[in-house]
Amino acid sequence: MKIPCLRVVVALVSGLVTMSTLAEGPARLEVIVFAGGFNWPIWVAQEKGFFRENDIAVNVTPTPGSVYQLVNLIDGKFDIAMTAIDNLIAYREGQGEDPKVGPDLVAVMGADQGFLKLVAVPEITSIGELRGKTVSVDARTTGYAFVLFELLERGGLREPDYKVERAGGVLQRFQALMEKKHDGTLLLSPFEVQAEARGFHTLASASQVLGPYQGLVAGVRQSWATNHREALVGYIRAYVKGVEWLYDPANKTEAIALLRKNLPSMSAEGAETTYRLLLDPKTGFQRSGAINLEGVSQVLALRSKWSEQKKELGQPTKYYDSTYYDMAMRH
Q: Per CATH, is 26-114+214-330 categorized as 3.40.190.10?
């Protein structure tokens, strides 16, 4: 029997490797988000091919609320959650709305400082006028509920001065507020832009009242991250590239067109306002996806103050693993 020449063997092996690589394709990531314009960097990364450049394919699912998001992240249905870091802390520490615990939940990248605005129906023009009224939250024990309670207290109100109802994620709360099912709620930009266009009033901005506050982050299970390091690093790198692309003034026209493509009900004027808000150098998307540990400290302080399940919490670094972010930034 003749032994194939080395060149033929190499060619056959190379062909098999190539076919195997092609068959595998990009790593598929399941990402769960809250609906809203703050997903702009993800839309950019999809539209401009930044995810593809990093050999990943991202499937984005909007969540109806934080409970669904965190429970399914813990259960492994989703790989990455763009969520408030307070949600990760709550479910890691057993203080979530649902009893399920995610002991290895951790943030791996910053996204924004909350974009949080207290918005009320047209009939209400000050926090004091919410006395005897109903405000809505996603969940009482996680997310931005504690920010809402703090803003109301600084405005002179504390339960039972007002009634609290659960109404789901920011999109659901916005819709309920527009229908005047509740009198006030905490919205994330650019939802307040759409509300103000309909005569609703922004009563307070969390960033102005509270100072540094870490809002959305990329959250994962540490066990998953360890086994999917390259894909996670690729996601961070692509997301950050999307943020930096948005901050480039040369891309403004294309960026606004992409925003309105994903939010077709937004007016041209609303898109301009959104661009100004979300790309503000001081309070907009966090440059390079850098987390604000001082802002995490604020989150922990509010959780310690307002959570009914009292527990000694850790230092900010307990809830943030910089390993994957540092790897992404080295490239």
A: yes
